UniProtKB/TrEMBL annotation:
One protein family per Pfam: XMAP215_CLASP_TOG
One GO molecular-function entry: microtubule plus end polymerase
UniProt organism field: Vitis vinifera (Grape)
Location in or out of the cell: Cytoplasm, Cytoskeleton
GO cellular component: cytoskeleton
Gene3D superfamilies named in the record: Leucine-rich Repeat Variant
Main location class: cytoplasm
Compositional bias segments (type: Low complexity): 250-267
Record domain TOG: where: 2-233
Protein name, entry field: TOG domain-containing protein
Biased composition (Basic and acidic residues): 237-246
Keywords noted in UniProt: Cytoplasm, Cytoskeleton
GO biological process, one term: microtubule polymerization
């Protein structure tokens, strides 16, 4: 028996942690092989050994020896296949270690790292996965950025937008469009096109195109022509895998309506409002001199103050806050003696309703009557009745019918 064989034989008597951190790389390598074999043999995700093994991987995947690191990734893959969502407790530390130590490794190491990330998504640790990707795309080495983008593409493509939230990915993409490495730019373009397949072209264009260089806009526009906005997940999260599939319809002739498959092919309706972060407009409004402006004797100063509010409220999504006094002021300004001020107030109300949605319902109750009054007047204050209609409709859209009715008739 050779010295190495003796060493490995004696090392097998050591606890797992001692073997996995042994100073001899051959011992660590052998330990990872054995660990993978044990995990492969586990059939119960509640097996207590999985709880024992979980803390080992943070250090194991960061091994400085490349062959050992690959074996550690093999063991981690076996562990994740045997585990259930409870393994998510180790997700952050392990994902961070993989991002820091594996994405710049050998091609096989990178491939196994991506498989690890996909398994974390399968185990519903998608937020941790995306947190890790946010760190990965900031790596100064482009070699580490491309695999991160590619695995996000893979996760979205296989699991779909219901599992992998598009909003998180949309926030990451802008900084990649101007990356100095062409491979990063190419991968980010591919990820953008994949997003279009899941949530539609218009939301993606609305949110991202203003942040792109003209060159990339043209390239994407050309490729979007061939993008079909129909995507179906090909992979399920672990919790869904054990569920029995719904029985298929025996014959298409049995139902005159669209088939289950065709309805699944329909594009997923994604509200653009849910894809963007809310913006605080109260703080900048306070600094703009709004309150002094709306009390000014000159109509031009009143209009200018309200116009600033209209501009701030034009953002796609407004952060909730106390808009009561603002709305009381707008209520008075809707009947301002100057038509320009009244029109601007109505526009501001419409923007607030659009940006706040249900958060605007409380204030809308005392705004509705005055807007309704304006629509009833043929000429009104300079003829603002026609212009009040869009603001009225925007408010009504985000109120319950009961609240809308009582606001209209003037009682609770």
């Amino acid at each position: 028996m050779s010295e190495d064989e003796k060493l490995l034989k004696e090392a097998k008597k050591l606890p797992w942690e001692d073997r996995l951190t042994h100073k001899n790389w051959k011992v660590r390598n052998d330990a990872n092989i054995d660990l993978a074999a044990v995990c492969d043999s586990i059939t119960d995700p509640k097996d207590p050994r999985l709880r024992e093994f979980g803390p080992f991987f943070k250090k194991a995947v960061a091994d400085s020896n490349a062959p050992v690191q690959e074996k550690a990734l093999d063991a981690l893959i076996a562990f994740l296949k045997a585990a259930d969502a409870d393994a998510g407790r180790y997700a952050k530390e392990v994902c961070d270690a993989v991002v820091a130590k594996c994405l710049t490794g050998r091609p096989k190491t990178v491939e196994k790292s991506q498989a690890v990330f996909m398994l974390w998504v399968e185990l519903e640790a998608v937020d941790v996965f995306l947190d890790a990707m946010e760190k990965a795309i900031k790596n100064k080495v482009a070699k580490a950025v491309v695999p991160a983008i590619d695995v996000m593409f893979q996760a979205l493509s296989e699991f779909g937008a219901k599992v992998v939230p598009p909003k998180r990915i949309l926030k990451m993409l802008p900084e990649l469009f101007d990356h100095q490495d062409q491979n990063v730019r190419a991968s980010s373009k591919g990820l953008t096109l994949e997003l279009c397949r899941w949530i539609g072209k218009d939301p993606v264009k609305s949110i991202l195109f203003e942040k792109m260089r003209d060159t990339m806009k043209k390239e994407l526009e050309a490729e979007l022509v061939n993008v079909t906005v129909t995507a179906r997940p090909s992979r399920k999260i672990r919790a869904e895998q054990d569920k029995e599939p719904e029985p298929e319809i025996a014959s298409e002739a049995a139902s005159p309506g669209p088939s289950e498959e065709s309805s699944a092919d329909a594009p997923q309706e994604i509200d653009e409002y849910e894809l963007v972060d809310p913006v605080d407009i109260l703080t900048p409004l306070e600094k703009s001199g709004f309150w002094d402006g709306v009390k000014a004797t000159k109509w031009s100063e009143r209009k200018e103050a309200v116009a600033e509010l209209t501009k701030l409220a034009s953002t796609k999504r407004i952060a909730p806050g106390d808009f009561t006094e603002i709305c009381r002021t707008l209520k008075k300004l809707v009947t301002d003696v100057n038509i320009a001020v009244a029109v601007e107030a109505i526009q501001a109300i419409g923007n607030l309703a659009r940006g706040l949605r249900t958060h605007f319902s409380g204030s809308s109750r005392f705004l509705l009557p005055v807007l309704l009054a304006e629509t009833r007047v043929a000429e009104g204050v300079g003829g603002t009745g026609v212009l009040a209609s869009p603001g009225l409709l925007m408010i009504g859209r985000w109120m319950t019918w009961r609240a809308f009715y009582y606001a209209c008739v003037g009682r609770e």
